[in-house]
Amino acid sequence: MKTYVVGLGLLLSCALFAQTAQTAPAGASSSSSVPTQPDKDHAAKRAEIRQLIELTGAANVSADALRQIIAPLRSGFPQVPDEFWDTFIKEVRSEELIDLVIPIYDKYYTRAEIHDLTTFYQSPVGQKTIKVLPKLSAEAIDAGQEWGRMVADRAMRKLHDKGYDKSSSMPSSDSPAGQ
Predict the structure, then answer these.
(1) Quick one: pLDDT at residue 58?
(2) Which of 14, 36, 111, 171 could form a disulfide linkage to 178, CB 3.0–4.6 angstroms apart?
């Protein structure tokens, strides 16, 4: 069961990326019933962030990725009842992810930058980017994995040339490094 919990924790952290807990808007005060201008501006900025996230479909892509990760986890944890996985999938709500991600966008982008991003994603090249990015990212990940294998092969060849074998971290006794 402990392995299951660790696996589920890993699933959530990978699929939902670096999420942070949603906090109250900066400057918000529970004692004031009339929002000040900065509070209105901040609320408007967060609404624009929500529009940007919905426009790009980022939350839906993340939710879809989470659902796809479930299949290997389900087979990797056969002791977990199917009912749990079915319920888990039904509980995936993109809106919750959007609520968690808004403070992150708010932290790194100004309102003007959010506006510029929205304008870009509404343009023809922005719309193409939205459509192409998932495939581009998947292919880039594949390319990165291939590159990692190439780098590892080169490193292994260099170590082999120095007399290290694959089963030991020590040079073999007949190699120049081991003598």
Answers:
(1) 84
(2) 171
